[in-house]
Amino acid sequence: MRMRNGFLKTWVDILYPRTCLACKNKLENKPCVDNLVCAVCWGKIKKNPPPFCLCCGRHLKNYLSNICPECTRKQLHFDRAFSPCAYAGIIKELIHMFKYKDKDYLGLTLSRLMVEFIREYNLPMDFIDLVVPVPLHKTKLREREFNQAEILSNHIASQFNKKLLPDALMRLRHTKTQTELEMDERMINVKGSFSAAKNKDLKGKNILLVDDVLTTGATSSEAAYALKNAGAHIVFVLTLAN
Fold first, then answer.
1. Helix/strand number for the chain, H first, E second
2. Among residues 91, 93, 135, 81, which one has the least CA distance to residue 111?
3. According to the model, what pLDDT value does residue 123 have?
4. I want to staple 86 with a disulfide (CB 3.0 to 4.6 A). Which of 20, 22, 46, 156 is the partner?
5. CB 193 within 8 A of CB 222
């Protein structure tokens, strides 16, 4: 029943009078992105400008260092992370709608920010063999009915003609929501929660691991750890925001 209701709600959202998902103003005869977000709100999305931390990808305020203070205090298993946006304001609201308000169709619109970022900063996509989304546990997937990371990954893989491997990773445990936890607790919460699929050839592969948000990096780090244990060579992380 929930699946049918979600399907009908999606079509109601798409077919009936258009309003900006962020400011709720009517979109009729106004510049907008995909008939979902007005140009004014889209322009207010806070981008991450360079220089970037060579670990987590956040904007560096201290130009004398190439790694942010937070990353110097923890061990992360991915090689480098990138995010086009800062997790605040409009983008935070849109991601929340995407994940929790049955607006899975927002994935295409939001993925445009990631694709544009890759092109603007010449991320080494020629170097990437596989695009892998961070998986949800089966319990969470049943609740949400889609994996937001897989939707984003699908658009990125198609734009750069890369192989998408949505089942390369499995989530072994249904962990607490990371947003409720402090940094140290997040690391403990996700430790050992991922496993690489044994029937997938990851040996020597360079992987782009995709998720919606990077905060402490704990989830992406554990996912990268599982991929590297399975033989992956390089694991870069790309999230929509951090």
1. 9, 9
2. 91
3. 96
4. 46
5. yes
How do residues 140-150 score in pLDDT, each as one tens digit? 888 889 999 99
Handedness of CA 180, 184, 185, 191 (dihedral sign): positive
Tell me, what's the pLDDT at 28?
86
**What CA–CA distance (Å, rounded) separates 30 from 195?**
47
Question: Going by C-beta distance under 8 Å and a sequence separation of 6 or more, which residues neighbour residue 213?
Answer: 87, 95, 239, 240, 241, 242
Pairwise pLDDT comparison (184 vs 168), residue with the higher score: 168
Q: At 50, is the secondary structure helix, strand, or coil? A: coil
Average pLDDT value for the chain: 89
- Top pLDDT among 172 and 46 is at 46
Q: Is 143 exposed, middle or buried (CB count within 10 Å of its CB: 0-12, 13-18, 19+)?
A: exposed
Helix, strand and coil percent figures for the chain, each rounded to 5: 40, 15, 45
Which pLDDT score, from 0 to 100, does residue 176 have?
A: 54
Tell me the average pLDDT across 83-93: 97
Q: Where are the alpha helices (DSSP H) in the chain?
A: 2-15, 39-43, 69-72, 89-100, 106-120, 138-144, 148-159, 183-190, 218-229
